[in-house]
Structure formats: structure tokens, C-alpha cells
Amino acid sequence: MRNIALIVGYDGTDYSGFQCQPHGNTIQDHLEQAIFVLSGERVKLHGSGRTDAGVHATGQVANFHTTSSIPAERWALALNARLPNDIVIHSAFSVPDHFHARRGAIRKTYCYTINCNRIPNLFQRRYEFHHPLPLDFQAMQQGLVYLLGEHDFTSFTSPLSKKASHVRTILDARLELEPASVNVLTESNLYHTSEWDEQHYPGMQRGVIRLYVSGNGFLYNMVRIIAGTLIQVGERKRKPEEVATILEAKDRSKAGPTAVPHGLTLCEVEYEQF
């Protein structure tokens, strides 16, 4: 019996999340079926964590035990030939028998992408949230700082969360801004977007904002609620320091909306040495 780990990427648009659901059509369902077609074995795949319906991954980690003699290095290509085009195995390798993709994870990094250019990017529409108005990038940075460290994140998780504790540690959090590269005329064709924005939204920015959050674990909808709250800060509907007040309240109704799932990607999962 061997333990095989997989690094998996997927476009989650057409799936009901990673973990198996009663109605099927999950990433796990397709992976387990591909393993069965390849090896003839019905295996139980363990993912590093759930991703919701519509959420993507570039670095999801999963593992399974197998009696198959297929060399570890051949699993990736062999499974890719049996998977839908929107699921890909980046690599496959043998790990110690005790390795468990979820229990052994010590750090996960997510990215939430917000396009606040006036016109959406046709080719990135599945992977970023389009916000047609500029945002106050500096205010969002200031609000994000309050989330660093260990906190009770009850305000930033769904009331449906079944976790016994909502205490988690945000190890790193940052925002990156890719400024708008061109000036696009407004519908009136009288002003460049930058001139119009400066008049109506002084001190706010256009471009693509990427929110990176790394932590020792995440609650149901946690990153999406953080993103939704920071967007409100960027809209100047909330002050940056309100993020601290929201944390202290331990009340989901005090935080912002749950941002749409397609802007979220699981980027990386880290482990101690095997």
C-alpha cells in the first residue's frame, strides 16, 4: 500500500466545490472516478480543505492510498488524460503513510481578485470580481492590518459554520494593485477615465487588486467575507478601523457581504517536512 499526493489545479466554475456532495459533480468526484478508471481501485481522496462551488485552485493538495503498481511520477499524466479539461494534476509523488493532506497542512494561501476597471476583462471574467467603480486602495490596506494575528473570526464566517472554535491565525495578508494600463474614454467621449475619476472619486484607484491571505486555517466563507468587507472599505462605506470593531463584535451581521465565489483561488498549501 502506497500513499500518493497530488497537486491539483481546477477552474471551479462548473463544479459544486471540491468535496463530494450528494448531488455529485465535485472536483473530488471527478478525481476519484479518474483514479478508478486508471487503476480499477475505489479510493477515498483526502483534500487539504474544501473550496466552495465556483472557487478555483492552482495548488490544492490531495492524497490517497493505493495498491496499484503505477509509478508515482506517472500518475499526473495518466490522470490528466482521464480528467475534464478544467481539472489538471500538476504533479504526483509518494509520501509517507502517515501524510494526510488536511490534517498535516500548516499554512494555506488564498487570493481574491477584484477588477475595478470600468470595463471587465472578457478573458478573466471567470476568475475575478468586476467592480466597475474605483476603490480606495490605501484604505483597504489600512483595514487589512487589523486582521493579522490570532483572532476569533466569528464575524467573518457563515452562521452555518459547524466548527467548535472560530479562532484562527492570519499569518500574512497583503494587497497588490496592478494599475490600469490605458485611459479609456467615457461614454460621453469628453474626458479620459482618469480625469473623470479624479473629479468624482478623488484619491481612489482603478486597476486589478489582488488580496492575498495566508493562515493556519480558514472558516466557511471566511476569505470571501473578508474580501466583501474590504471592498466596502474601498468604497468608503466603512472606515478602515471598523474592521477591528467587526472582529470584536463576533457577529456575522456586522461584517460586509460574502464576495462572489469566482474571484477566489486557493493558491498554495504548505506542510512540515514529510
TrEMBL record:
<feature type="domain" description="Pseudouridine synthase I TruA alpha/beta">
    <location>
        <begin position="145"/>
        <end position="272"/>
    </location>
</feature>
<feature type="active site" description="Nucleophile">
    <location>
        <position position="52"/>
    </location>
</feature>
<comment type="similarity">
    <text>Belongs to the tRNA pseudouridine synthase TruA family.</text>
</comment>
<dbReference type="GO" id="GO:0003723">
    <property type="term" value="F:RNA binding"/>
</dbReference>
<dbReference type="InterPro" id="IPR020094">
    <property type="entry name" value="TruA/RsuA/RluB/E/F_N"/>
</dbReference>
<protein>
    <recommendedName>
        <fullName>tRNA pseudouridine synthase A</fullName>
        <ecNumber>5.4.99.12</ecNumber>
    </recommendedName>
</protein>
<keyword id="KW-0413">Isomerase</keyword>
<comment type="function">
    <text>Formation of pseudouridine at positions 38, 39 and 40 in the anticodon stem and loop of transfer RNAs.</text>
</comment>
<dbReference type="Pfam" id="PF01416">
    <property type="entry name" value="PseudoU_synth_1"/>
</dbReference>
<dbReference type="InterPro" id="IPR001406">
    <property type="entry name" value="PsdUridine_synth_TruA"/>
</dbReference>
<dbReference type="GO" id="GO:0160147">
    <property type="term" value="F:tRNA pseudouridine(38-40) synthase activity"/>
</dbReference>
<dbReference type="InterPro" id="IPR020103">
    <property type="entry name" value="PsdUridine_synth_cat_dom_sf"/>
</dbReference>
<keyword id="KW-0819">tRNA processing</keyword>
<dbReference type="InterPro" id="IPR020095">
    <property type="entry name" value="PsdUridine_synth_TruA_C"/>
</dbReference>
<dbReference type="GO" id="GO:0031119">
    <property type="term" value="P:tRNA pseudouridine synthesis"/>
</dbReference>
<feature type="domain" description="Pseudouridine synthase I TruA alpha/beta">
    <location>
        <begin position="8"/>
        <end position="102"/>
    </location>
</feature>
<dbReference type="InterPro" id="IPR020097">
    <property type="entry name" value="PsdUridine_synth_TruA_a/b_dom"/>
</dbReference>
<comment type="subunit">
    <text>Homodimer.</text>
</comment>
<feature type="binding site">
    <location>
        <position position="110"/>
    </location>
    <ligand>
        <name>substrate</name>
    </ligand>
</feature>
